[in-house]
Write a structure and sequence with these properties.
single chain; 229 residues; alpha/beta; Rossmann fold; 6-stranded mixed β-sheet; 4-stranded antiparallel β-sheet; 8 helices; 10 strands
Length: 229
């Protein structure tokens, strides 16, 4: 079986403390995987390693069958990896539409992206006038406009209400029909109905990798993640 993404033995330390510690996992095409874990578990560091924003001290990253460990973030974006951030990174003084034009790879169907993310009536607004959830939607739309094969989402539900999370969950699910998605989230309850598989990190190590019900019922996850006895 061939895999779109393979992370093999990835490690990264900060000040001698392991943020990511010998992490190995694989993803198939059109898979939606969620990485969860408590604060400081290494989730964002792992995403940054895959995106090329950080370099691993050990391990390899294989994408579409090729070793991309040494490639820059820019080159990874060119070959099909796009990333969003926990804090939105959009151009506040420009309109939503102009933000999308900047991101457009030239191959993406912008009208479809706009419709999918519920931004049809917001394109002419300056980003600074958009609600927080619409800024989140716009950032995801900009990443999708790069026409990626692999979309990396950094806590897209952070700061959102329950209703906003439900709406964004539907929108992310529709994207998963077109691309592979790897997203990180703090709370497992937010992703059980969304993910095909869940990887649980704690202290930089994978303590569980499986289907949502397997992660929910794993005794190590229950003890470490929820501090159950």
């Amino acid at each position: 079986m061939s895999f779109l993404l393979e992370c093999i033995g990835l490690s990264k330390h900060f000040g001698g403390i392991p943020a990511v510690d010998d992490v190995t996992f694989k993803m198939q095409e059109k898979e939606l995987k969620c990485i969860i874990g408590p604060n400081g578990a290494g989730k964002t560091t792992l995403l940054n390693l895959i995106a090329g924003l950080l370099k691993p001290e050990a391990g390899r990253i294989i994408f579409k069958g090729k070793d991309i460990t040494g490639l820059s973030a820019y080159r990874r974006a060119q070959i099909g990896i796009a990333r969003t951030f926990q804090l939105t990174t959009v151009f506040q003084k420009m309109t939503a539409y102009d933000n999308l034009l900047i991101a457009n790879s030239g191959r993406a169907n912008i009208p479809d992206i706009v419709k999918n993310m519920g931004l049809e009536d917001k394109l002419d607004r300056k980003v600074s006038h958009l609600s927080y959830v619409d800024k989140k939607r716009l950032e995801i739309a900009m990443a999708v406009a790069l026409n990626p094969t692999l979309l990396l989402l950094d806590e897209p539900f952070s700061g959102l209400s329950e209703d906003e999370i439900r709406e964004l969950t539907v929108q992310i699910k529709s994207l998963a029909d077109k691309m592979t998605i790897l997203m990180i989230e703090h709370k497992i309850s937010k992703v059980c109905d969304l993910a095909h598989r869940i990887t649980v990190l704690n202290d930089g190590k994978i303590i569980c990798d499986g289907k949502p019900d397997e992660a929910l019922n794993d005794p190590t996850v229950r003890k470490v993640y929820w501090k159950y006895e």
